[in-house]
Amino acid sequence: MPGHFLNGIELPRGMLWVDEFNWSAVEKTVERSITGAQVIDVFTKVAGRPITLQAVEDQGWIRRATLLAVQALADGPAGEYLLKLADGREFTVQFAPTDPISAQPVSRPELPGGTHPYVATLRLFTV
Q: pTM to 2 decimals?
């Protein structure tokens, strides 16, 4: 079964969206007016939702060659990319400005090949 796709690069479907529910599309601020009345401002967020795709030690491993391709995107000029999740949802995303990718090899070979697996985390946000 196909996994997720970032700008056409296939990512493992076992990488889970770990902060999917750490977001509210509505922001509220509460203040007091000069009369003492409570004023609540409500607005809808249109972008900036975090999408952190994360593997764990026993699922969602990403191959080194794929990780290098994703790293090349993250290292390039700030761009917008299409993220298609395995469940069919689509988002336009950018890489997080700090620590967009973290990864550790599953084992420690001296010269890892392109198929060597890594446990990785990709930090993105919607635009």
A: 0.87
Instruction: Give the model confidence (pLDDT) of 78-96 as tens digits.
Output: 889 999 999 999 999 999 9
Query: pLDDT tens digit string along 53-75?
Result: 999 988 999 999 999 999 999 99
Q: What is the extent of the structural domain holding 26?
A: 4-126
Buried b (16+ CB within 10 A) or exposed e, 98-114: eebbeeeeeeeeeeeee
DSSP characters over 8-47: TEEE-TTSEETTTTS--SEEEEEEE-TTS-EEEEEEE--S
Number of structural domains, the chain? 1
